[in-house]
Q: What sequence folds into this?
């Protein structure tokens, strides 16, 4: 009797796992009604008839159309069902059965996928076999760890705006994607992650390399699927790509059991997506009265400022027109760098915890805050009650959940920022308002002159801020820059000036160390003509150092600019500022010989130059300021991957700094780890 109960429990668990493909968001993955003929075909493992002519598949529609145009529900469904690639010529005959894995790869081809980041395993090897036979030559960049591949897919997506694709096997392969999925969700990155799963009959039996991937990823994906019917693959892939790239972008996961990958079927490429609930919640273009109210608030303001985030990356031309026509100064979030040219005098650079004093001053003093594509993150706001306390707030965002979540808006606008700015700009052109904010800009300019992004000039040792500025100068500010997380990330954000969007790749919301190198790999694969530089820290770099093998094997010319202080620098800075410089396991060097004490290069640990030699990647180290410029030039001139290990003292701090939960009045602008006892240090 006990054995029967165990068997029954396992069968119920398997059934519930299959049902779990739609986590709460049931409307996203409801199956379309199936005909009797289709049901019979399924029983024979042969699907519905194929489209007789590939030309019957219409070219796809840019997902932005759904938030920029008034559409009926029927029009939205029809447009969302269209695949990007028209007139696709399959390597199979129209009525020729093929494996589920072949259908999956062809579905990716029909979505216009040209590159995936995939690591094979037992539950995904069918997909890899099909990838080797890709009709369009889909490239697989073989990263050496699943976390590397998901970060690479993020880098690909961030620098192009296209959907990044990664593929992993079941069990540990799938769980290794978790950090990247959470990272993509917080940073609104369009991504489709595909995982193998144990055969359907083994789901719920604790089989080898079985994990409940759908359940694990439910809260860190925009949506996820468990494919239990090979006939659903074309529809699910279309839905996944549409969900990932439309509305507020994010990651979507598709979990495919191995027996579904092996099942023979004839695909039907014309199914309608089943996303009625999701489509109905996408925002419509804003009305003229809404935008006229925004303009009225601008007319009444004396000290307006624009606070622009990652939601503006695809609206850079519209944002630039708005700023130029109004003369309103603009500050960017960490995720929004590049959406407005940093070289323009109206740009106040980054705001927030390590943002410019003059940017934070502008927000603190403003009487109108125009929040475009932002979420009022705690690293920006500090103490919420004191953030922009004097200002009326206009908040325009594509995600209604963000409006009023952290900070109440006086004028909330649920809209894609691009059509909102288009409408606002057209009203401004017609109205021709007389706006003069010159006194306000002059007031901010005084703060800029008084509190620039300053650092100590030296003659001998290297200061990291200077190193980043020199790199920016030598690349003319045009490189695609990725980073890990920590002090180096903030120095890169402060001192590398971006004039264009999608050249800045960083982990903002989750703050994932180890992001820099894999993200650079994704960028190099996506934009082979660009100079791609990973500005990294020694702590972050080591976390995915195995991807040096990927650089060599794929011959990706990523330049690695490692700012090395032998410590977890940002945590050390907090120890210096708030914990009396007591070290709580933040030293990363050799326990027997500290390079900071001996100044002997032989004591640097780990030795990145020797490690690179093992991976056949050229590398060198620089310790003196006088040698830095020539070393950077050698790195940039090298035809292929190259690592430059830049040594600097661990006492350097990222300034300015607003302590967590603090206000503008709490800003720290002086001091470093050399003087932990001075008045510049604070206590929590």
A:
């Amino acid at each position: 009797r006990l054995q029967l109960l165990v068997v029954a429990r396992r069968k119920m668990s398997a059934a519930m796992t299959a049902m779990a493909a739609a986590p709460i968001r049931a409307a996203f993955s409801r199956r379309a009604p199936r005909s009797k003929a289709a049901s019979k075909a399924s029983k024979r493992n042969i699907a519905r008839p194929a489209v007789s002519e590939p030309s019957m598949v219409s070219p796809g529609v840019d997902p932005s159309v759904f938030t920029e145009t008034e559409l009926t529900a029927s029009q939205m469904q029809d447009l969302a069902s269209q695949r990007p690639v028209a007139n696709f010529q399959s390597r199979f005959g129209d009525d020729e059965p093929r494996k589920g894995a072949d259908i999956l790869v062809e579905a990716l081809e029909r979505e216009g996928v040209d590159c995936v980041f995939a690591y094979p395993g037992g539950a995904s090897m069918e997909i890899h076999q099909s990838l080797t036979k890709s009709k369009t030559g889909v490239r697989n960049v073989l990263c050496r760890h699943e976390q590397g591949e998901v970060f690479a897919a993020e880098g690909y997506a961030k620098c192009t705006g296209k959907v990044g694709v990664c593929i992993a096997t079941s069990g540990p392969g799938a769980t290794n994607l978790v950090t990247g999925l959470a990272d993509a969700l917080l940073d609104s990155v369009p991504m489709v992650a595909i995982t193998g799963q144990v055969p359907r009959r083994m789901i719920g039996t604790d089989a080898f390399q079985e994990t409940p991937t759908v359940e694990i990823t439910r809260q860190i994906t925009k949506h996820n699927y468990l494919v239990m019917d090979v006939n659903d693959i074309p529809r699910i892939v279309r839905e996944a790509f549409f969900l990932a790239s439309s509305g507020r972008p994010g990651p979507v996961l598709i979990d495919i059991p191995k027996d579904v990958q092996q099942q023979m079927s004839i695909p039907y490429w014309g199914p309608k997506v089943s996303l009625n609930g999701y489509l109905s919640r996408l925002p419509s273009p804003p009305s003229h009265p809404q935008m006229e109210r925004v303009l009225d608030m601008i007319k009444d303001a004396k000290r307006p400022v624009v606070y622009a985030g990652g939601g503006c990356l695809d609206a850079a031309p519209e944002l630039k027109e708005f700023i130029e026509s109004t003369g309103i100064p603009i500050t960017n979030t960490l995720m929004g760098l590049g959406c407005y040219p940093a070289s323009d005098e109206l740009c106040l650079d980054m705001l927030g915890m390590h943002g410019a004093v003059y940017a934070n001053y502008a927000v603190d003093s403003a009487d109108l805050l125009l929040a475009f594509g932002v979420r009022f993150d705690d690293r920006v706001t500090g103490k919420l009650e004191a953030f922009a306390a004097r200002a009326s707030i206009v908040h325009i965002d594509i995600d209604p959940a963000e409006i009023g979540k952290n900070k109440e808006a006086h004028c909330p606008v649920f809209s894609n920022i691009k059509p909102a700015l288009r409408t606002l700009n057209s009203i401004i052109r017609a109205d021709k308002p007389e706006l003069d904010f010159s006194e306000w800009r002059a007031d901010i300019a005084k703060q800029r002159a008084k509190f620039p992004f300053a650092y100590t000039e030296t003659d001998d040792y290297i200061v990291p801020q200077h190193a980043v500025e020199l790199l920016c100068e030598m690349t003319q500010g045009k490189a695609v820059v990725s980073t890990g997380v920590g002090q180096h990330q903030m120095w890169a954000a402060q001192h590398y000036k971006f004039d264009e969007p999608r050249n800045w790749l960083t982990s903002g919301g989750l703050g994932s160390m180890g992001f820099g190198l894999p993200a650079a790999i994704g960028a190099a694969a996506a934009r082979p003509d660009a100079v791609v530089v990973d500005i990294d820290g020694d702590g972050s770099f080591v976390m995915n150092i195995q991807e040096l093998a990927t650089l060599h094997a794929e011959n990706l010319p990523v330049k690695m600019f490692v700012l090395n202080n032998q410590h977890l620098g940002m945590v050390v800075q907090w120890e210096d500022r708030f914990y009396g410089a007591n070290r709580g396991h933040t030293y990363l060097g050799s326990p027997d010989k500290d390079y900071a004490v001996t100044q002997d290069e032989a004591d640097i640990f780990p030795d990145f130059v020797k490690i690179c030699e093992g991976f056949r990647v050229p590398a060198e180290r620089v310790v003196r300021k006088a040698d830095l410029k020539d070393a950077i030039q050698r790195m940039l001139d090298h035809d292929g991957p190259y690592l430059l290990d830049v040594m600097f003292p661990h006492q350097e701090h990222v300034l300015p700094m607003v302590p967590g939960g603090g206000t503008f009045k709490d800003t720290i602008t002086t001091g470093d780890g050399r003087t932990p006892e001075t008045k510049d240090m604070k206590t929590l």
